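Service request form, structural biology core

Requester: graduate student, group of Dr. S.
Request type: structure prediction, single chain
Budget code: on file
Notes: please return the result as structure tokens.

Sequence provided:
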Amino acid sequence: GGGGGTAASDSAAAAAAAAARETALAQAIVHPNVVATYKVLTVPVSHGRAGGMEAEGVGVVVAPAERSGLTPTKDGSAATALDGDAAGDASPPTPPPLLETWIVLEYCDRGSLEAAIAAGRFMRGDGGGGGRDMAAIYAALRDVAAGMEYLASLGVVHADLKPANILLKSTAAR
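Core staff response, request fulfilled:
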């Protein structure tokens, strides 16, 4: 062979190393305006369910082989369309295992900023009759800016900052 499996395994190893770095970094970040990451667990998916999670009744949908680009073989393994039917190739390479990542984050009881805006929680009065609550808007902007400033001081770029990804939580003062 031409080493096609080596490139795939190198790519998988690089992805695993990047995920391990991101996990360690996420768990090390501690700031009042950044959601805390308590635990990250990556488990193999087997028989359409996450490893060990079926006891809790948590279902996982795994795409059938035909939709995932894999072709089932007679022995139950899978071959990609790239493997082909090369003469002398007794068995196709084994695909990497399917993995699922579970992340336990700090509980943010007020939902997302996107939902808060849609619900009118940044409006004065009963849902908007009194105009925008600029004090609440500025407080939220200040909190987001403080969290982003902290991440930037660590050399971390969020890369997907949007209202749906900003989580809100109650404080003792609110």
